[in-house]
Amino acid sequence: MRIHPAASQPTGTRTIPAGPAGKPAADLVPTCQGVRVQIRSSRPDDEPRLVEIARSAWSPLVSPNPPNPQLFNERTLPDNVLVAEDRGRLTGSLKIRPVPLAHPELEASCGHVHEIHGLSVDPHHQGRGTGRALLRAARRIAVDRGARRITLRVLGGNVRAQALYLSCGYVVEGVLRAEFRIQDRYVDDVLMALDLRTG
Q1: Which long-range contacts (CB under 8 A, 24 or more apart) does 25-32 make?
Q2: DSSP secondary structure letter of residue 65
Q3: Nearest CA-CA partner of 142 in 100, 118, 113, 117
Q4: Distance between CA atoms of residues 105 and 72, nearest Å
Q5: Which of 68, 114, 143, 176 could form a disulfide with 189 if both were Cys (CB 3.0 to 4.6 A apart)?
């Protein structure tokens, strides 16, 4: 997975190197149904399709708010977005970044932690192992960057996503009770993490 030089990044942001330049996030990855998807770093021209996927996959069950019309910004760089590609068509994405990229003040204390802050799979491709392939690639990227932990947050009602994360080695580390009010219902925010030393 190629990480652009720091000089090309917005001021105040930092991307932890991901191993040798040009190293891919993953090659062709077999999913649970035998379909082989390619996992790679995103490119700026992927943005329209990735936004389309995020919108089609969104519901109040998976996120409090609909996806933004713009995917990439100073906190979400193309090199920190993995995409799944099936026969030339994008079918999913996963956003993973070092915590200090979003919170520069935590550089010294949280540089060893990566966070997943978005996983979307085209509804027509869900249930085929695409999300699992993206999570495996995210783990590899974080390990290559020297991270010790990956963290994420998932809504309490999104049991399907929680089951996927648990099956990939993530554990529940905390629950923020009634953290969100969505459609007049209070919803928990579940905090999960993967220990890269053992996971």
Answers
A1: 25/1, 25/82, 25/137, 25/140, 25/141, 26/133, 26/136, 26/137, 26/140, 29/133, 29/136, 29/137, 30/129, 31/128, 31/129, 31/130, 31/132, 31/133, 32/128, 32/129, 32/132
A2: S
A3: 113
A4: 21
A5: 176
